[in-house]
Structures are given as structure tokens and as C-alpha cells.
Amino acid sequence: MNARKHHSRRKHHSRRTHHPRRKQKLLTHQILEQRQLLAVDGFASINGLGNNVDNPDWAAVGEQFIRLSPAAFEDGIGAPARSDQMNAREISNLISAQQESVENDRFITSMWFQWGQFLDHDIARVFDVAPFEQLQTVESLDIDE
């Protein structure tokens, strides 16, 4: 069979053709309640008041969070549950006291993860700018000596 005949028999897929093995995700949207700041200057207040027009006290300083599960204190008042377990400080000290290096199968260090975190935060925290934003440049500086 020559290459031309084989080529002519191939199915040509356009980019819009649905791949039969891929599942399509349906995009949905949800309507959120109207939220706006009550502050005149347009900035959130330092104490959290006014972040929600319908419920101005929500997320304000001193307001209780919505409890999704019942309280479970060891003494019924405020002692942490399961006080017989190791606390975070003890676990941290045990991990930090390890003398041997823990290698992974790709021989990379945790610095790779830290670098990824840095890049993610750097990219995510960049403000949107116009595509061709002009930079202000200085032609020359007059420096008095």
C-alpha cells in the first residue's frame, strides 16, 4: 500500500471533534448573593464589618464562626479532645530531629516544592495590566555633582 492511499483513508479530525474516550465536563454557574462593601471608600473595614450587605456582622471581629459539627472538648468546656495524643510541637520536634536524609525516587529535594510555591504565589499575586502597558522612561538624568 503506498503512502498516498493510506493517507487518504485516515480520518481527519478537526479540533472541534469530540474524542470518544474523553468525558466532557458541563460548565455550570451559581448565582451568588449580592455582596458589596458598606464602606464609602470602597475598602474592606479592618474589623470585617460590612463585608456582606444582607448580613453586615458576618466575618466581623468577635463574631462566632458557623459550627458545622458539634463541639467535642475532653472536659466538655474547652480542653482539647484526645489530650492523650501527641501535640503538634512533639510531632514537629520528632521530624526535625531526624539525622538521616530522606530520599525520594526522583532524587529531588523539598526545595523544588518551595520553588513551585514561590512561582505560584508570584504569578497569582500579579495584578492585571493592559496588554501593552507603557512604561514611563526617563530620557536623561541631570545629576548635580
UniProtKB/TrEMBL annotation:
One family name in Pfam for this protein: An_peroxidase
- Biological process GO terms, please? response to oxidative stress
Q: Which InterPro entries does the record match to this protein?
A: Haem_peroxidase_animal, Haem_peroxidase_sf, Haem_peroxidase_sf_animal
Task: Give Gene Ontology CC terms.
Answer: extracellular region
Task: Report the locations given in the UniProt record.
Answer: Secreted
Query: Which GO terms label this protein's molecular function in UniProt?
Result: heme binding; peroxidase activity
- What is the name of this protein? Peroxidase
Q: Which organism is it from?
A: marine sediment metagenome
